[in-house]
Amino acid sequence: MKLTKIYSLIFIPPLAQYVVTLEEADGSRLIPIWIGISEGASIAMVLEGEKFKRPLTHDLTVNLIKALGGSLEKIIISDLKENAYYATLILKQGERSLEIDSRPSDAIALAVRTGAPIFVEEKVLALCPVINKPISEDEVKNFEKEIENLRPEDFFKKLDESPPQEGLE
Which of 36, 111, 162, 164 is the most buried (most CB within 10 A)? Predict the structure, then answer.
């Protein structure tokens, strides 16, 4: 497993979607993940420091976890199947450890609220389209322009055409 952090969050108006890009903490790989507009907005609000008088859905979830004596220890982007990422929440409640299935977008929205670390499984890194750093500001701007016209399935189409990698069959 590799520790990551959020590198960027880009809103794509024509698709009404966001792309959150995770960056390896000790490497050069960037992992783009398409997420929904609600989850992207939820993550963006925290990253921009916005506060609300009443809890939003992800805030409510964090409040429930805390009220039940638990904490979010970490999230893991655990798999990539049929162009969809999967995630697992690792919760701690006393001595008990719980693994909860989650969409990556919800898991990341919870992680940014709690400060929980974000990990990506090696098998996901081997399967997903990865961008290597360093990239220049111009490359970032070009990437943002390109993904505005790109559908998630276009990004993954090459995966279906490439031969399976060793140990991942």
Answer: 111
Q: Residue 156 domain-assigned?
A: yes
Sign of the Cα torsion 81, 8, 141, 147 reads positive
Rounded to two decimals, what is the model's pTM? Answer: 0.79
Q: How far is CA 53 from CA 38, 79, 99, 151, in A?
A: 18, 36, 31, 36
Domain containing 78 equals 2-161
Kindly state whether residue 168 falls inside one of the protein's structural domains. no
Give 138: exposed, middle or buried? Use CB within 10 Å, 0-12, 13-18, 19+.
exposed
pLDDT of residue 92: 97
Residues contacting residue 68 through CB under 8 Å, at least 6 positions apart: 93
Residues 6+ apart with CB under 8 A from 146: none
With a pLDDT cut of 70, the percent of the chain lying above it is 79
Q: What total of structural domains would you count in the chain?
A: 1
Side chain identity at residue 24, one-letter code: E
- CATH number of the domain to which 96 belongs: 3.10.690.10
Q: Is residue 169 part of a domain?
A: no
